[in-house]
Amino acid sequence: MIGSNGNYWESLCKRCGLCCYSKTVEEDRVVYHMDMPCRDLDTDTSRCRIYETRFKDNPTCRKMTLLKAMLAPYLPPSCGYVEWAQRKGIRFARKLRIVYLHGHR
Ligand code: SF4
Q: What is the C-alpha separation between 87 and 100, in angstroms, rounded?
C-alpha cells in the first residue's frame, strides 16, 4: 500500500495517533498520558492537523526512522512500524509493558 503522498514508508503508519501523546518510559513500562496529546493532534480523528508541515511548524515532532522502528521501546506493539519491523525480523527493542493512562494528573 502506498500512502497519500506515494511514500511507502509513510504508508506503514496506521494513523492511530498513539505516538502523538506524551509518554514516560519507566523501568519496565511505558506510560502513555492520554490526557496529554500533542497540541497539533486532532483527538477526534487521531490525525495531525499540520501533517504536511509538522517538522517545520512543530519543533517537538520527530520523524519515524528505520532505527526507531527497530529499536524504540516506547512504540506500542500495534504501531505499523513495529509490526513491519517484526515481520522483517529486525525488531530488537526491549519489551516494555504499555500502560494507557486516562484522566488528569
Ligand atoms: S504509533 Fe505508529 S502507527 Fe500509530 S500514528 Fe504513530 S507511527 Fe503511526
A: 25
